[in-house]
Amino acid sequence: MQEQQESSQQASTPPKSQKPVSIEPDVDFIRVLSKESDNTYKLCMQCGTCSVTCGISPDRAPFPRKEMAWASWGLKDRFLGNPDIWLCHQCNDCSTQCPRGARPGDILASIRQEVVGHYAAPRFLARWVKSPKFALLLLAIPAVLLGLALLARDSLGEALGLSTPVGDRILFPYSAGIFPHWLLNIFFFFFGALALIAAIIGVVRFWRAMKASNEEKGLPLSGKSLGSCIWAALKKVFTHEDFAACTTASSRFLPHFCIFFGFLALCVVTFWIITNQMNPLIQGSFVYPFGFWNPLKLLANLGGVAVLIGCIMMIFDRLTNEEAGYSTYSDWILLGTLLAVVGTGFITELLHYGRLVPHRHVAYFIHLVFVFSLIVYVPYTKFAHVVYRTAALAFAEFSGRNTKVQMERGADTVKHNSEKEIRDATGIA
Q1: Domain assignment of residue 46, yes or no
Q2: pLDDT, tens digit, for every residue of 127-156?
Q3: Residues 376 and 191: beta-carbon distance below 8 Å
Q4: Domain of 159?
Q5: Shortest CA distance to 368 belongs to which of 148, 61, 165, 142?
Q6: Total-model pTM
Q7: pLDDT at residue 222, rounded to an integer
Q8: Among 12, 25, 31, 408, CA closest to 220
Q9: Is residue 405 within 8 Å of residue 220, measured between CB atoms?
């Protein structure tokens, strides 16, 4: 009798490797994923097809299989220190091959935006940027701030001893009498610095979370210097190396390439103009304002054309290519803002050369509002993905995510227990 009781007790007690684990699902996180994905992530049956299909997923604990398991259980905290969600470029090769239609690529896209919101400072701006009902408010903020700058222009200029000469030539700064260069520099330097600080805070938090997650797993670091890891990440970003490995969304490579380098060209010219009066090396025809055929002016116009073409191609692809993945509000608001910045920029330029007043001043004001929205809201929009993905790529190098040492270390911990191997892949007991 006693032997039977002991046998029954042993049968009812789960093995050590199968003891239940308490989890705390994030209900709000589940609600967001359900809304943005139409509950497709719940169809995942953990077959692993997505991880096998992905051309850039590493062999050790490959994505996005484990991420789909975490999403099913609403384990938002698992994603906060996970660089793998940022190594994904949403090419949706995994989504087109999924036998259940769970669309892992789209799920990871939604998760990335949630992670951005989690690390955002302040977080309420991230919530506003994600919600269509705050769109007008987010445009009104820079409009009001620019209006206040207009009111303070004369008194501030007198206090600083600054003045802006305005000639009658066609070659003069846009709206120089309305928005002098010194005022624009002060305005955008101040708010741009705030956006930069917010971005740095978010990335530092993200880096610490990735580091803590790596230490918790007991995985060794690569031994590489942080500088070399950042350089390797930047090379991947600039060459679009991983993006080029995609097949389903290969049509997005060219427009993405055009937008990236077109915007980079605009940033270079803008930086040149801002530092024009501070840099003694800038002389001759390279002193702002530029003529139409000036190399820097041509670079800015070509960059604007590249961004415009890239946006149009991407919008067309998103509307016609269903296999390339869902488009969320975050996607459309970024594309819309880019189009607005470039479009109002070209309109301002045409009105400027036509000497149409006050039309060019109004167009320039609207242009500056959208420029503010694009730059200052970077830490909260999908544009922040550039920053977080670069950080994740750098950490993947820094932590030895794909190195042989770490892969062997991961293999040693699971080779004797198949069930343990499954749990390491999914993160769920």
Answers
A1: no
A2: 999 899 999 999 999 999 999 988 888 777
A3: yes
A4: 123-392
A5: 142
A6: 0.81
A7: 75
A8: 408
A9: yes
Whether 39 is in a domain gets the answer: no
pLDDT in tens, 356-401: 888 888 999 999 999 999 999 999 999 999 899 999 999 988 888 7
Q: Are 363 and 396 in contact (CB under 8 A)?
A: no
The one-letter code for the residue type at 231 is: W
Tally of domains within the chain? 1
Query: DSSP assignment, residue 277?
Result: T
CA distance 149 to 81: 41
The span from the CA of 147 to the CA of 363, in Å, is: 14
- Asked if 72 contacts 26 with a C-beta cutoff of 8 angstroms, the reply is no
Which residue, among 308, 291, 294, has the nearest Cα to 353 in the 3D structure? 291
415 pLDDT above the threshold of 60: no
Can you tell me the distance from the alpha carbon of 113 to that of 115, in angstroms, rounded to the nearest whole number? 5
Q: Is 234 helix (H, G, I), strand (E, B) or coil?
A: helix
> Which string of b and e fits 218-235 if b means at least 16 CB within 10 Å?
ebeebeeeeeebbebbee
Buried b (16+ CB within 10 A) or exposed e, 53-78: bbebbbebbbbbbbbbbbbbbbbbbb
- Whose CA is closest to 380, among 229, 231, 199, 244? 199
State both tokens at 55: 């051309």
User: Is residue 236 very low, low, confident or very high in pLDDT (cuts 50, 70, 90)?
Assistant: confident
Contacts of 356-364 with CB under 8 Å at 24 or more apart are 360/174, 360/175, 361/175, 361/178, 364/174, 364/175, 364/178, 364/179
Provide CB contacts within 8 A for 32, sequence distance 6+: 110, 114
Could you give the CA distance from residue 232 to residue 216 in angstroms, rounded to a whole number?
25
Give tens-digit pLDDT for 179-198.
Answer: 787 788 889 999 999 999 99
Residue type, 390: T
Q: Is 96 part of any domain?
A: no
- List helix spans (H) across 217-247: 226-239
Task: Assess whether pLDDT exceeds 70 at residue 421.
Answer: no
pLDDT over 80 (residue 208): yes
Determine, yes or no, domain membership for 258: yes
CA 240 – CA 235 distance, rounded (Å): 8
